[in-house]
Specification:
heterodimer, A: 123 residues, alpha+beta, OB fold (Dihydrolipoamide Acetyltransferase, E2P), six-stranded antiparallel sheet, three-stranded antiparallel sheet, 5 helices, B: alpha+beta, Gyrase A, domain 2, 19 strands
Chain lengths: 123, 346
């Protein structure tokens, strides 16, 4: 699996064989607090980077999740339907939200590395 | 006061329902008004109670009303003696300090704001009495909405059996210099914890309690808000009370809106401001407060709908441009657990 990268909207992306796995960062789950519900994206949808594609509801607020790069949604983490709190427990592994077939790997290269994301959070 | 402490809103909420939790509500207004007939008469223009007849060492839930009977603020008003002098002790919303104090000072120029000198803590939950009894003398026969002066570390503190969670509990007004010690002493009980604004909101919503700025505002009367029980009915005949005619008419006639409780039928979250519709897409009302209910494991809400709407028909809530079915639920969502005559009652 490739290096994990991050967006300014606090999503993480990792890529294997042109399939991207996406979730929200540990920092994002911490600031959202207890997550109680997720509206998963629809499999088969073709989306563009920055499109709002699903919603995470925490006890505090609803937050939109954006597509980090262009592509087609090919799988969603159905475990989250019954237990969205998995994201609180393990945001960057078991708490993955959806997978995409990506169309432009350059978009991935433009995202932040883990160190860059850490610096971004400190700003 | 933060939204939550380390363990999160849901955990704090459950700890209050099962054990106890401590809220630092020092941001709220606290004022002492001398129990003087001329002051009380002036205050009775705004407060729908017979202030001269308030029972000593008891608290009352009431309001400040504007000329139309709309709610300027909701508050708790108590009759207590401090150092042999009789006072009305009023606790009011932080967001309404300016409006409320203008009224208090106009009625009683020597009214004494005490929130800069006194912190206000609430300990809530079934274990509150046991946690508190180790630190402060609490008489066994103290009931919900009783209030008294007690001692802690040589400081006089105001102790009322009250709260905003639907559980048994106490509110403690304590001089700043003793505040930190008091909290430290309370937290020595390992089953209690500090709780924030998030759980305060979900607890009060489950208990069906109103929040100023949501269920209550200057354009809503206590009767429209379903709180007519808190009005002294004799005062509604008194021309000295703001909005008395409007209020007594409202009591006799049908209101245009009614307050309801709602519960989501799936996992969608109901939030303040969401609109409600009937099955023909006609707007019938609006949500004023919504949250996730840890006790019911579903989203719950309070809102207003048109009185003419027949609640046997389905209601839909617009959530992110989709209409989702919601169910009416009687208020409160969770049984109240207050103490009266030596036992816990609902």
């Amino acid at each position: 699996m490739s290096e994990k990268k991050y967006t300014k909207d606090h999503e993480w992306v990792s890529i294997e064989n042109e399939i991207a796995t996406i979730g929200i960062s540990n920092h994002a789950q911490e600031s959202l607090g207890d997550i109680v519900f997720i509206e998963l994206p629809s499999v088969g949808n073709t989306v563009k980077a920055k499109d709002e594609i699903c919603v995470v509801e925490s006890v505090k607020a609803a937050s939109d999740i954006y597509a980090p790069i262009d592509g087609e949604i090919i799988e969603v983490n159905n475990n989250l339907e019954n237990d969205a709190a998995i994201i609180n427990q393990d945001a960057e592994n078991e708490g993955w939200i959806f997978k995409m077939k990506i169309s432009d790997s350059n978009q991935y290269s433009d995202l932040m590395s883990e160190d860059e994301y850490k610096q971004f959070l400190e700003q | 006061m933060p939204i939550n402490y380390k363990t999160g809103i849901i955990n704090e909420h459950k700890n209050v329902r099962n054990h106890s939790g401590i809220f630092d509500v020092s941001h709220m207004g606290q004022i002492l008004i001398e129990n003087n007939e001329s002051y009380l008469h002036k205050l009775e223009k705004y407060i729908p109670l017979q202030l001269k007849n308030l029972i000593k060492n008891r608290s009352h839930y009431s309001f400040l009303l504007n000329k139309d009977g709309g709610v300027i603020d909701d508050l708790i008003i108590s009759n207590i003696d401090i150092k042999d002098k009789s006072y009305l002790y009023i606790v009011y919303n932080a967001s309404r300090k300016k409006e409320d104090e203008e009224i208090f000072i106009s009625c009683a120029p020597n009214a004494e704001k005490i929130y800069n000198e006194n912190c206000l803590f609430a300990i809530q939950g079934p274990d509150s009495i046991n946690v508190l009894k180790n630190i402060i003398d609490i008489p066994n026969n103290m009931n919900f909405f009783d209030i008294l002066i007690s001692k802690y570390n040589n400081s006089e503190i105001i102790v009322s059996r009250s709260g905003y969670t639907g559980e048994d509990g106490f509110e403690l007004s304590v001089p700043n210099e003793s505040a930190e010690n008091l909290i430290t002493d309370l937290l020595k009980n390992e089953n209690t914890m500090l709780c924030g604004l998030g759980s305060r909101d979900s607890l009060r919503l489950e208990a069906g309690l109103s929040l100023y700025g949501h269920e209550l505002n200057e354009n809503i009367t206590p009767i429209e808000a379903g709180l007519s029980w808190a009005l002294d009915k004799e005062r509604l005949e008194d021309k000295n009370l703001n909005g008395n005619k409007i209020l007594s008419d409202q009591l006799k006639n049908k209101l245009s809106n009614k307050k309801i409780g709602l519960i989501s039928t799936n996992k969608s979250m109901l939030r303040d401001g969401m609109m409600l519709f009937d099955n023909n897409n006609n707007e019938i009302g609006k949500i004023t407060s919504g949250c996730f209910s840890p006790n019911l494991n579903k989203s719950i809400a309070i809102g207003y709908i048109k009185s003419e709407f027949n609640t046997d028909n389905p209601i839909f809530c617009e959530i992110r441009k989709k209409l989702e079915l919601v169910k009416i639920n009687n208020l409160p969502f969770v049984k109240k657990n207050y103490k009266k005559n030596g036992s816990v009652y609902e």
